[in-house]
């Protein structure tokens, strides 16, 4: 068990690009994935990317359930190495995102609703999928980490960044749902 420190918003290391994995047999890759799983579970996250624990390799995981999110819907539990994605639709969906590197904050982020993505599992097997809805969102959020992008950079209006604990947050959510910030 190795729970690593999660880098938080404001740490410049989160804005550095990550490098491709070249050796799938490297024991360090297995250790990294173990550390990512342990850290993600410790913080009750549903996904995590390697740079969040200060390792700049293109490794992400997503679709993991937690007591807070017991149902991940159609998001398959996935460990993905060297991911690539393409946008398949101009249609955008909005959602209040959260992130282990941005604790207590939520941001309303619009992202393409349909993508295709590919990459490799821990054993080097090729994975290729199409995804929509929350599945597409979670892949885009995690892959963004590998390019040094955190979700606040994707929030179109700074007013749509909010403390989840703030009493007015529910009012803000209602206003967004009503299209007031459209
Ligand atoms: Ni994140």
Protein described:
- By secondary structure, this protein is an alpha+beta fold.
- The chain has three helices and eight strands, in the order H-E-E-E-E-E-E-E-H-E-H.
- It has helices at 27-42, 133-146, 169-177; strands at residues 48-49, 59-62, 78-87, 92-97, 105-112, 114-120, 126-132, 161-163.
- A hairpin with a 7-residue loop joins strand 4 and strand 5 (105-112).
- The chain is globular, with a radius of gyration of 16 Å.
- The site of nickel (II) ion has 5 residues, from helix 2.
Q: Overall pLDDT, averaged?
A: 95
Low-confidence stretches: none
Give me the secondary-structure category: alpha+beta
Say how many strands there are.
8
Overall geometric form:
globular
| Helix content bin | 10-25%
Query: Number of helix segments?
Result: 3
Order of helices and strands: HEEEEEEEHEH
Q: In whole angstroms, how far apart are the ends?
A: 45 Å
Oligomer: single chain
Secondary structure layout plus pairing:
Blueprint: H1 27-42, E1 48-49, E2 59-62, E3 78-87, E4 92-97, E5 105-112, E6 114-120, E7 126-132, H2 133-146, E8 161-163, H3 169-177
The protein binds nickel (II) ion (NI).
Give short descriptive properties of this protein.
182 residues; globular; binds nickel (II) ion; alpha+beta; five-stranded antiparallel beta sheet
Structure summary:
This protein has helices at 27-42, 133-146, 169-177; strands at 48-49, 59-62, 78-87, 92-97, 105-112, 114-120, 126-132, 161-163.
């Amino acid at each position: 068990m190795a729970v690593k420190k999660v880098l938080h918003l404001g740490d410049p290391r989160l804005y550095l690009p990550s490098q491709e994995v070249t050796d799938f047999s490297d024991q360090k890759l297995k250790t990294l994935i173990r550390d990512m799983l342990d850290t993600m579970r410790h913080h009750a996250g549903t996904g995590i990317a390697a740079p969040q624990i200060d390792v700049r390799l293109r490794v992400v995981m997503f679709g993991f359930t937690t007591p807070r999110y017991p149902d991940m819907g159609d998001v398959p539990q996935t460990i993905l190495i060297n991911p690539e994605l393409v946008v398949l639709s101009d249609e955008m969906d909005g959602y209040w995102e959260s992130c282990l590197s941005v604790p207590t904050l939520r941001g309303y982020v619009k992202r393409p609703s349909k993508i295709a993505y590919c990459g490799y599992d821990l054993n080097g097997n090729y994975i290729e999928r199409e995804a929509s809805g929350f599945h597409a969102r979670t892949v885009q959020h995690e892959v963004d980490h590998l390019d040094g992008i955190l979700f606040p950079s994707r929030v179109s209006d700074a007013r749509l960044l909010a403390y989840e604990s703030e009493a007015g947050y529910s009012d803000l959510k209602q206003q967004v749902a009503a299209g007031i910030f459209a």
